[in-house]
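sorry for the late reply, my laptop died twice this morning and i had to redo everyting from scratch. anyway the thing you sent over, i finally got around to it. pasting the sequence first so we're on the same page, its 360 residues, then the predicted structure underneath. double check i copied it right bc i was rushing
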Amino acid sequence: MLYLLSELSSQFNVLNVFRYLTFRAGGSVLTALIVAFVFGPAIIRWLKSKQGYGQPIRTDGPQSHLVKQGTPTMGGVMMLLGIGIATLLWADLSNHYVWIALFVTMSYGFIGFMDDYLKVTKRSVGGLKGRLKLVAEIVVAGIAVYWISALSTPVLHDRLAVPFFKDVLFDLGLFYIPFGIFVMVGAANSVNLTDGLDGLAIVPVMIASGVFVIIAYLIGNLVFANYLQVNYVPGAGELAVFCGAVVGAGLGFLWFNAPPAMVFMGDTGSLAMGGALGSVAVVTKHEIVLGIVGGLFVLETVSVIVQVASFKLTGKRVFRMAPLHHHYEEKGWAESTVVIRFWIIAFILAVAGLATLKLR
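ok and here's the structure:
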């Protein structure tokens, strides 16, 4: 919306600043942060009044979590509000990639909201039926990937870029859409699995989003893309504004989610944040890099897969409890120790992901 002010720059030179992605991305971060700060307390009070006993706590999880009974969930609502307002205010709304990212984020947020709502109202950890939830996620991702493919240049619309190599593009053909769906759905559910401790998921989400602010900006700039010898995606730079909104909203949410948490993001937030990262990765042709930058989410997901597979095949568990963060809790690590060490891992993986831009 504010981007339109740049059209008046011929009359008022100062308005030319709204043309710059860096300025608008910074404005997006601050706007989303302020929205979360301003509306967060009211949203938490409203959630408490509606939820009563708060989010149901798993009885088969770590016993230390039982003290969190009564903490409201669906805190992802404040993040979605911040992301929506900041993106609509600062992004170029004629850019289709912005609308795709918002579509996936808000749709996944709605799916997560329905899941949280059923958990709270039925006082059960079950929520939406797994198959229904998965089908809904696949449908949303399918629409988004088809939309992205239609907008992409003929050279890139069905191809997979490989990091560390200059000109390697795998032609996936008809398999591109299923692959893109896998990336978005996988990212959403990986973040969801990671969201098990206060502050554990949101900081890696912000770190990954910050990395994709840089990636989107460089990929959408022809000069930088040619210099780095990466695939130029016209229009992708505008997603830097969207990713900035994710960072700002995440910071605002962390203020209330810092231990001891006043609110949990719930599936409303975790599915939405994962979907946001997945959609941006597909647009920028950095799907594999997302697996590196979001490697912590991958590790958490793999730990669950390994645990389930091992138990079904051998009757034995590899980890004391899955996902991985619960394993270390069961080993005696304090919750804050697990969280901070996982943040450090997320930061290291983010640096490794950024390195792929230059190491080719």
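The chain has a mean pLDDT of 90.
thats about all i looked at so far, will dig more tmrw
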